[in-house]
Structures are given as structure tokens and as C-alpha cells.
């Protein structure tokens, strides 16, 4: 079963399933077998009715174009069996506004062709699809052909270098008086082409029939012999509407005006002499420091960046060409000025600009056109994050976008690396590391460039918001992952934060901190965790509310008060019993006999007493005299002592020391 035609309904994709069975008659019986197939068909949205750039088509007056207006907007409609049905119709915008179309209009539509009349007319063509879509397809301006231009491979050229018997095609373009190229002008004007030396070159235009096979005019040029010739192409032999081309025929150095890179080797040769035996010559370079060349073989070696002239001389001719030596193929990567971090980081990633050298810039331009980068990006060390190429469509600048991993991902990934025995990057400090972004060509991985930048890790806290403390709950644990080298600030004297655990994996770590409230007073405080290098800051609010005392708390307080009062009373009773003890006297002290001449009232000097082993004289010593002021101080102290009344207690003031 073959499906030849499928009809699209709307944009999207769908799967088509085909299932069938076959009966095979084999020797010994019949065998049935089923077959299944599936195919995904994607239906794209209808393309725009606008015909693209250039939006304004310049067409000569009194001219009928070829079939330049498409009559359908889809491939299926172009190749359907209903070829006579057109899905798009066109009309000049002016006639659409007037709801009338006359043959007198300067621009008209004839099927898929555009017809013009006199010049200096301007109108736009309105395209209307059967589905109801209406758009401006293009605009048409009618102008006289005023200039002719010659190009070679789409490049404006006024000098052609040809070897003997070479053939070349020159593309002829028509322009208006301000130099704007015509969209189509086949046979609109008659061209005259001539040369001053017919024996050197011959030039001719294609026949009238062949001319319509080209969207632009073409002139054929053939070189016959050595020399120079000037070719003139004009409109109706008007010198004001003419262009001139110089054609040089003879031996040429190939390649002409090449571009080399430092370190390249290249062979130059001579072609187009037209003789069987060419007279030998020698090669030379005008700047040996830029490029050196073998005198006999023409092998050149590029040494340094710059320009040099390569000459070839023999007895009959002198040839030269210019060689440009470019610096080595390289990629330049420029790091952003800001410090890189993973909390927070830009949503579109960190932009490392990528610049290709002159020799590689064509690859970058082609990648912009195809929306596919020609280079790859990667990060070293790779566990920090990943990078991908990207080109800004507006500015045309190419980048390597760096996306760092989150702190949680880093801790998990790096801990696994450490457990497997994989060594981490040296030079990593606590929370920071220098990383490199490397860009390399897809087609040549050895051509690469890199940029280095400082990466300071961020952190993540397991608890954010508010921490509520109470007498029954006055401490809590928080976990910080990532960069644990953070600053912690708070003002309250009732809080304490202390580390209790930390496990480090290179630049990242896993740490636990205890927050403790040690005052039974109501307060509110904020603990700030910050990394000054990146500006990351997280605040944790802490509230303490003592609340109402519970019955258990009141019982404990009452017991404490009763015990304290009992101990105080016991201490006072013990002190009073000590003060109520009876008077005591000291023991008798021996005293030496006084001399006969000594006065009874005179005190006995210890030096005047002679004590011998057989001496038995003993005298009773008296206590030292206590100062009256001290006695008064003791009396006053006892009077002011609480719960104490002296009454009739006896005391001897002599024993108060």
C-alpha cells in the first residue's frame, strides 16, 4: 500500500501508522505475516506571502517580466494534481484601494508576470491567499536603465588577468541613475561591446535566444595572445552609460595575491605562457623577514606577519604578486570583568566573548548565517559548571556562556569525586578557585583559546526565614553548604552561634552551626550571613518569647524559695548560738620576779626577768588593752545585727580580738 497524497490541515507534527498483512503460499501450507510501519510528518506554518529582499523591485518601462510571482505558497500546491487552481492572487495596491483595475495603470499584473508602462511609477503588489491572509508581496518602481556594471563571480571587477587561450564569462548588471540594480531587465536596452585589440582578446554577447536563459546579461571573453586590451561595454554607444575593463593576457604567477599564515609552505608557479619551452628564471621576495622563497623552485615559507612582493624574472618578462602573511590561526577568549559566582548568577549565564583571527573570521560569519557555531566551549575544572557557544543575532558577537552549578550540586558532585579517589584541582582555596573557559574549533580541536577568571562560590542555608525560640526550645542547628567561609553578624547579647561540624571538599564544604539563646527575656534579632566578594547576603530572623509560666515552672520556683528561706534561718540560728557561749579566760603565764628597786606600778620588762631551770616563780599575765574605738565599733555592729538583742548577755570586751 502506497500513500501518494496527504492533505495538511494545520501546522504541527503527526505520526502516520501503516499496518498490513500478507499471506504467503509456501510448500506445505499458507503463512500469514503482518507488517507495521510509522513515519512522523511535520507540517510547517504557511510561509509569508512577502517575497523577501529586495522589497522594492526596479523594472524598466514598457517591460514584461518572466514568471516572477508565485501562485501558491506551498510545495504540495505547486505539485498537486490541481495545477489550474491558484491559491494566491495579486493586484496593485492602488487599484485595490480604488476597487477598480484599468489597463491605463502604470503597473499591472498578468498571471505571474508584471507589466510596466512609463517610468517614474511606483506601486506595491498586494498578495491575497484563499485562506484570507493578505500581505504586501513587494513594491515595484519603474525606472530607465542608466548604467551598466561588470562583475566576476559576483565581485565588481575592472581588471582581468588571463592566460593565453583562457575563457571567462563577465556578468553584466543594469542599474538606474543612482546605481540601484534592476530586478530584471532582459533585452531592455541594446548593448554595444568592443575592444581595441581584437588579436589579443575577443568579446561577444550570447544570442537573443540564449540571453533569456540568464537572469543577468553575460559577455564571453577569450584570450588569444600576449598583450593588453581594453574592452568597452556601453548602452547605445553612449559614453556616459559605458564601463571599461582592462584585460591582461600572458604568463601569470599563480595563485595571485594569496594569503598565507605564519609557518606555512607554498609553491608558486607560472601559467599561461603559451609556449612549449619557457625560458627559465628566478624567484625573489621583497621582504625576506616576512616570506622567503627558493630562487629555482618557487617554494615559499612564511616567517612573520606582514606583506611582501614575490617576483619572477627571466630574460623576457617580469612578473609579481603580493603575498599577505597572516598571524597563526587562533581564537581569542575574553573574560568578563565581574567576579564569577553561583549564587546569584545571571539567568543568561556569564558571557566570555570569542574572537576569531582574520583567517578564521569567514567561518564565524558562515556560522552566523547558518545559526550553528563552528567552535566548542568547555570549562576547566569541569565540576564547577558547563559552557556552550552562543552568538548574539543583533550585535553578531560570539560568546561562550558559562553556567555554574548550584552549591548543593557542587557538594554532592565533589564529594562523590573525593570518595572515588579522584584528585581535585590544586590551587583551590576555601570557597574560591580560578577556572578557565576554553573555546576550540570543531574542525580543528588543536586551534583553541582560553580565558581565566576568579570564581567565588556562594552558599545555601538549610533554614531561611524566622527562627522562633521559647524556654522549652532555645537552641537550633542550621546547615550551610557551598562556601562556608561566610561572615556572621548580629547585635543581641542573648544569642550565640558556634560551629559544631565541618566537612570540606576542595572549594566547597558542608558545615553545621548551633544557634543558642541563653537569656529568658523577650527579644528579636537578625543574624546576617554574607560573602563580601560576591555580595551574597542571607538574613535569618530569631525571635525569643518567654510566654506564660506553666504549673510545673511555678512549683519549681516555690520549692526553690522555700529551700532558700530554710537555709537562711538555719544560718542565723547557728550564728546566734555562737554568740551566746560563756566567757573564757586564758591560762596563767609565768613571770620573772621583779627587782627590789622596781616600782610596783612599773611594767615588768621581759629582759629584766631571769628564768632559770629551777625557777618556779609564776606571775599572772593580763590581756592587752583593746582600743576604745574598736570596742565602740563592735558594740554598734551588734546593735545593728538583725534578729539579735543583747539583753543581759555577758561579754568581756578584752576578748574581742
UniProtKB/TrEMBL annotation:
<feature type="domain" description="Nuclear pore complex protein GP210 C-terminal Ig-like">
    <location>
        <begin position="465"/>
        <end position="545"/>
    </location>
</feature>
<feature type="domain" description="NUP210 Ig-like">
    <location>
        <begin position="253"/>
        <end position="317"/>
    </location>
</feature>
<dbReference type="Pfam" id="PF24427">
    <property type="entry name" value="Ig_GP210_16th"/>
</dbReference>
<dbReference type="Pfam" id="PF25354">
    <property type="entry name" value="Ig_NUP210_16th"/>
</dbReference>
<keyword id="KW-0812">Transmembrane</keyword>
<dbReference type="InterPro" id="IPR057586">
    <property type="entry name" value="Ig_NUP210_16th"/>
</dbReference>
<feature type="transmembrane region" description="Helical">
    <location>
        <begin position="556"/>
        <end position="579"/>
    </location>
</feature>
<feature type="domain" description="Nuclear pore complex protein GP210 Ig-like">
    <location>
        <begin position="327"/>
        <end position="456"/>
    </location>
</feature>
<dbReference type="Pfam" id="PF24425">
    <property type="entry name" value="Ig_GP210_15th"/>
</dbReference>
<keyword id="KW-0472">Membrane</keyword>
<protein>
    <submittedName>
        <fullName>Uncharacterized protein</fullName>
    </submittedName>
</protein>
<dbReference type="InterPro" id="IPR056233">
    <property type="entry name" value="Ig_GP210_16th"/>
</dbReference>
<keyword id="KW-1133">Transmembrane helix</keyword>
<dbReference type="InterPro" id="IPR056232">
    <property type="entry name" value="Ig_GP210_15th"/>
</dbReference>
<dbReference type="InterPro" id="IPR045197">
    <property type="entry name" value="NUP210-like"/>
</dbReference>
Amino acid at each position: 500500500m502506497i500513500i501518494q497524497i496527504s492533505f495538511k490541515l494545520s501546522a504541527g507534527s503527526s505520526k502516520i501508522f501503516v499496518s498490513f498483512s500478507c499471506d504467503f503460499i509456501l510448500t506445505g501450507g499458507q503463512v500469514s505475516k503482518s507488517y507495521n510501519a510509522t513515519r512522523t510528518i511535520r507540517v510547517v506554518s504557511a510561509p509569508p506571502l512577502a517575497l523577501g529582499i529586495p522589497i522594492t523591485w526596479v523594472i524598466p518601462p514598457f517591460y514584461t517580466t518572466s514568471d516572477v510571482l508565485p501562485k501558491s505558497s506551498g510545495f504540495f500546491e505547486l505539485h498537486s494534481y490541481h495545477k489550474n487552481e491558484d491559491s494566491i492572487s495579486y493586484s496593485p495596491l492602488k487599484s485595490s484601494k480604488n476597487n477598480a483595475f484599468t489597463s491605463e495603470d502604470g503597473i499591472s499584473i498578468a498571471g505571474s508576470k508584471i507589466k510596466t508602462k512609463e517610468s517614474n511609477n511606483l506601486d506595491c503588489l498586494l498578495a491575497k491567499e484563499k485562506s484570507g491572509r493578505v500581505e504586501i508581496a513587494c513594491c515595484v518602481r519603474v525606472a530607465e536603465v542608466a548604467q551598466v556594471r561588470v562583475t566576476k563571480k559576483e565581485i565588481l571587477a575592472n581588471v582581468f588577468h588571463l592566460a593565453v587561450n583562457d575563457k571567462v564569462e563577465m556578468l553584466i548588471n543594469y542599474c538606474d541613475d543612482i546605481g540601484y540594480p534592476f530586478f530584471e531587465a532582459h533585452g531592455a536596452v541594446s548593448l554595444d561591446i568592443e575592444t581595441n585589440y581584437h588579436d589579443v582578446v575577443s568579446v561577444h554577447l550570447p544570442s537573443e535566444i540564449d540571453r533569456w536563459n540568464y537572469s543577468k546579461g553575460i559577455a564571453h571573453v577569450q584570450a588569444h595572445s600576449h598583450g593588453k586590451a581594453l574592452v568597452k561595454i556601453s548602452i547605445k554607444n553612449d559614453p556616459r552609460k559605458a564601463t571599461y575593463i582592462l584585460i591582461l593576457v600572458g604568463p601569470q604567477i599563480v595563485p595571485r595575491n594569496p594569503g598565507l599564515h605564519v609557518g606555512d609552505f607554498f609553491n608558486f608557479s607560472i601559467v599561461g605562457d603559451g609556449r612549449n619551452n619557457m625560458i627559465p628564471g628566478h624567484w625573489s621576495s621583497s621582504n625576506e623577514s616576512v616570506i622567503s622563497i627558493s630562487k629555482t623552485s618557487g617554494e615559499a615559507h612564511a616567517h612573520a606577519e606582514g606583506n611582501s612582493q614575490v617576483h619572477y624574472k627571466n630574460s623576457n618578462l617580469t612578473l609579481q604578486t603580493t603575498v599577505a602573511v597572516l598571524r597563526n590561526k587562533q581564537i581569542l577568549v575574553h573574560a568578563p570583568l565581574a567576579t564569577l559566582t553561583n549564587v546569584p548568577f545571571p539567568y543568561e549565564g556569564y558571557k566570555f566573548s570569542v574572537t576569531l583571527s582574520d583567517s578564521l573570521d569567514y567561518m564565524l560569519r558562515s556560522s552566523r548565517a547558518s545559526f550553528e557555531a563552528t567552535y566548542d566551549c568547555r570549562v576547566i575544572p569541569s565540576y564547577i559548571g558547563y559552557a556552550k557557544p552562543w552568538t548574539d543575532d543583533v550585535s553578531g558577537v560570539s560568546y561562550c556562556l558559562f553556567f555554574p552549578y548550584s552549591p548543593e550540586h557542587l557538594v554532592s558532585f565533589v564529594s562523590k569525586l573525593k570518595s572515588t579517589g579522584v584528585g581535585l584541582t590544586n590551587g583551590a582555596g576555601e570557597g574560591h578557585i580560578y577556572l578557565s573557559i576554553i573555546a576550540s574549533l570543531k574542525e580543528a580541536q588543536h586551534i583553541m583559546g582560553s580565558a581565566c577568571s576568579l570564581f567565588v562560590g556562594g552558599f545555601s542555608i538549610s533554614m531561611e526565614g524566622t527562627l522562633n525560640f521559647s524556654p522549652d526550645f532555645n537552641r537550633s542547628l542550621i546547615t550551610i553548604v557551598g562556601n562556608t567561609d561566610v561572615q556572621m553578624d548580629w547585635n543581641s547579647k542573648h544569642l550565640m552561634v558556634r560551629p559544631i561540624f565541618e566537612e570540606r571538599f576542595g572549594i566547597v564544604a558542608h558545615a553545621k552551626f548551633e544557634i543558642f539563646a541563653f537569656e529568658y527575656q523577650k527579644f528579636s534579632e537578625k543574624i546576617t550571613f554574607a560573602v563580601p566578594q560576591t555580595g551574597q547576603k542571607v538574613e535569618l530572623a530569631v525571635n525569643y518569647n518567654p510566654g506564660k509560666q506553666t504549673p510545673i515552672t511555678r512549683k519549681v520556683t516555690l520549692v526553690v524559695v522555700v529551700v532558700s528561706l530554710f537555709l537562711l534561718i538555719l544560718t542565723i540560728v547557728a550564728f546566734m548560738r555562737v554568740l551566746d557561749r560563756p566567757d573564757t579566760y586564758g591560762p596563767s603565764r609565768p613571770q620573772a620576779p621583779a627587782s627590789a628597786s622596781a616600782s610596783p606600778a612599773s611594767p615588768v620588762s621581759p629582759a629584766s626577768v631571769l628564768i632559770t631551770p629551777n625557777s618556779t616563780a609564776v606571775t599572772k599575765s593580763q590581756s592587752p588593752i583593746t582600743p576604745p574605738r574598736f570596742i565602740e565599733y563592735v558594740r554598734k555592729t551588734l546593735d545593728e545585727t538583725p534578729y539579735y538583742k543583747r539583753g543581759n548577755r555577758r561579754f568581756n570586751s578584752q576578748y574581742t580580738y
